[in-house]
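This follows on from our talk about sequence and fold. Can you supply me with one protein entry, sequence and fold together? Could you add the entry underneath, on a fresh line?
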Amino acid sequence: MSVAINGTNGITYNDGSLQPSAPVGKNLIINGDMNIAQRGTNVTGITTTGYYTVDRFSQVVSSAGTWTQTQSADAPTGAGFYNSWEINCTTANASLAAGAFLIANHAIEGFNLQQLGYGAAGAKTITLSFWIKSNKTGTYILGIYRPTSGRQISTSYSISVANTWEKKTITIPGDTSGTITNANTEGFRISWWLGAGSLFSSGTLNTSWGANVSANRAVGQVNLADSTSNYINITGVQLEVNTTATPFEHLQYGQQLALCQRYFWKWTERHAFCAMAAYSTTAIYGAFVYPTTMRAAPTWTGSANADLIILMNSASVTASSFAVEIITTNSARIKIVPSSSRIQGQAGWLETVSGATKYIQADAEL
């Protein structure tokens, strides 16, 4: 595609549209193309809130059916995307209780939102664009909530044609009240509502920034949980400081992975995880440096002690216990109690057993 560069106003595309210039890093959404899925590509039986498949996107569920999540290869043709985030209903709830809800969320760290200038006269307008597809047409609600100031805004959009990719663009005015804390805490929570009980839909839709009132958050929202035929796919999510949507910013895979690993990383490969040394005959220690600085000191979990192997002095020894100590945002000290005694001072390394279900992971999600 040819372009004409206008140094004052931006870029004029060959279709005649003028797009304001934007620097690399304009997209405030991480993994908006749904290419990174460290946790896995398919999870079934979802009835509770959590991160399950594609990184940085969580499903929030309360008494609203049972779901399967997939990193899907279904994407809008010719739009430059290969993957989408797919959510399928496997057990329906056609009559949601008052407090029931179903939401797709993306949380943004406060450090990354200071350019918006919220809480002052110059608060900037932002534009959210995304591709969406569902069998269920009707009115859907997009909301943004700011936890530190307790302020919220909602807007409605329509899925007009069943089983067809549609691009949506939503422009949100800046908020001159309530700042966004400059910290590693949650600054924005973007919510694609998919189902809402009366506690969240019985008021008047809050289409301007204001105090969070639950009843005003999802007025008019259809119930995606009302049939096991229902599904939704989302991809190409971009949030930018702009009054219009510009072309999606495609990052290299490695760049996107590093951004995701600030919040979560998972180790499943069978090779050296970190160097270890026997502090005593029954305690082996090692230091692991994370792939990137994490948002906060993470929570570590693993599949099973037996899935960890220490290679030391030409021997392969399994772990009888595993502990992580002195956890920081950059590294952690690992302590292994081996299944058989070692010689003090011996050096070796730690591995996980081969297999997708054998893992070590660290979680610092918002």
Notes: The first strand starts at residue 3 and ends at 6. The CA atoms of residues 16 and 278 lie 68 Å apart. Residues 264-363 form one domain.
